[in-house]
Specification:
Length: 130
């Protein structure tokens, strides 16, 4: 199945401008063209866009994504380096998750503390008026 650029944008959650940008910076191979010369994205293109979106969500820099895309085009011989890039990014994501978990723990502590203060204050008011 082939998808227009508008449909590919809708399905990928990326803008048309982003799709063109990814093509221009060689993150995305130029898609096939239909008989009218319009871009025709394949399921494979959409799967790759989904993966690129995940990489961006992890905070991977565009330059590293470009390196990965270049290696991908070179085939199986680059599997080791591509794996290394993903392992490095995974480590970065795990560190960020740990940092966020620490922040979440502080927020939970403070929320619990304020709930205790509010309940204690409310209990104090009820006791004083009873």
């Amino acid at each position: 199945m082939a998808y227009s650029i508008a449909e590919a944008a809708r399905r990928s959650g990326l803008s048309i401008d982003t799709l063109r940008y990814y093509e221009r910076i060689k993150l995305l191979d130029p898609p096939a063209r239909d008989s009218a010369g319009r871009r025709a994205y394949s399921e494979t293109d959409l799967a790759w866009l989904q993966f690129l979106t995940k990489l961006r969500t992890t905070g991977m820099p565009i330059r590293r994504m470009r390196e990965y895309a270049t290696l991908r085009r070179r085939g199986a011989a680059t599997a080791g380096r591509r794996r290394a890039i993903l392992v490095e990014q995974r480590r970065s994501v795990a560190e960020r998750i740990a940092e966020l978990q620490s922040c979440l723990d502080v927020l939970d502590y403070k929320i619990t503390n304020y709930e205790r203060l509010e309940h204690g204050h409310a209990a104090g008011i009820q006791e004083a008026s009873a």
